[in-house]
Amino acid sequence: MTDRYETADFFLDESLFDDPYPYYEYLRERKGPVWIDERYPVAVVTGHEEESEVLRDHATYSSCNSPTGPFPGLGVEVVGDDADPFIRERRTELPMHEYMVTMDRPDHDEYRGLMWRLFTPKQLARNEEFMWRLADEKLDEFVAGGKVEFSAQYASPFAGLVIADLLGVPDEDMPRFRAWFDRQVGKMDGTGEAGAVTGEDPLAFFQDAFARYVTERRAEPRDDVLTQLAEATFSDGTVPDVEAIARESAFIFAAGQETTVGLITFALRHLAEHPETQARIRGDRSLIPNFLEEMLRLESPIKAHFRMARRTTTLGGVTIPAGMSVMLVNGAANRDPRRFECPADVQIERPNARDQLAFSRGAHSCLGQSLARAESRVTIERVLDRMGDIRVSEAEHGPADDRRWEFLPTWLFRGLTELHLEFTPIG
To answer: Where residue 172 sits, what CATH number does that domain have?
Structure first.
């Protein structure tokens, strides 16, 4: 660690996109688990205990700026120690204010109640049956060739189609969704038709689709998940707008896609880089769930999310003024040595691996976390069944002592842009 981190900017320093972890250690050692970055300003939280406290304390911290933090913030100076009046006044001017992720109670609980019906044990069990079939279908597309770019050819379309199935996309429409993901692969590898995806907004694509589904089911109900969504009501019996249900469905689709792809690709990279771990998990599949928790802890798919102090408060011995954005740095909290012994090491039998905060805590804990775990577990199972001696492609990523990795160029998401693997087909 060097003094260059003293002036490093989490939001602008591109060197932190590839490897932010030395910076997190620097902050923890030099600044403590909570400190104020006056440049924005924002309270930066790198401690596990402190982040957990914020996530569970909805009375003190608002989610109104959850995905955007200090950009733009409230846009008005908060006078005094109570920001709630300012938040109420400015909420509808904040980015994504109409999405559940930015809502506070009781509105958040009402919308979460609408979408929770997607994640019942019955729905998840039905969806897992689809996962097993889909995993083999995607593997069939490349496994005989002994190599794959795993992110685009498997992880992204697999995660997206699993969520499409969970959300009840009709069988007759699945080819349209598959074609959409195929076009994304073409865009990534250069084989897509010119202009095929120009201007194609994923949220808009899925939101339009689900608005049509909900409208159709309200007119002609069926015995399916989409009808359950279409007929859902708030606790007072009022019917939500079609746009509201479509919006939340699309957000679940997009958010679930990004985080699951990150988890799956980091897990596969680790197995490919560590043949001894790969062999051990091949021999004992019961290790897979805890291994995935370690991957979530070690490489949290969401680097940071935010809250806003509703009133002046103290966290980790630091005073946070009312109205200030609070940045929760998952990747730092999940490597907090006060919570995790030897936090930079992967311990597939780590006893407290599920203490990781990748899926948040409290009322805003990730709705789809059980789904992401199931998708990743099924993937690891079928990959190990059908791909032997999995290894990183040195032609694409360089030798073991000089790897070349490219990460998503953003402060928000942590993920690989590509993961090229080679393997011996099984069966």
So the answer is: 1.10.630.10
Structure tokens at 355: 């203490």
413 has a pLDDT exceeding 70: yes
Q: Which domain covers residue 394, as residue numbers?
A: 3-425
Average pLDDT over residues 216-231: 88
* pTM, full prediction: 0.91
Domains of the chain: total? 1
> What average pLDDT does the segment 239-267 reach?
88
Question: 329 pairs with which residues across the strands?
Answer: 304
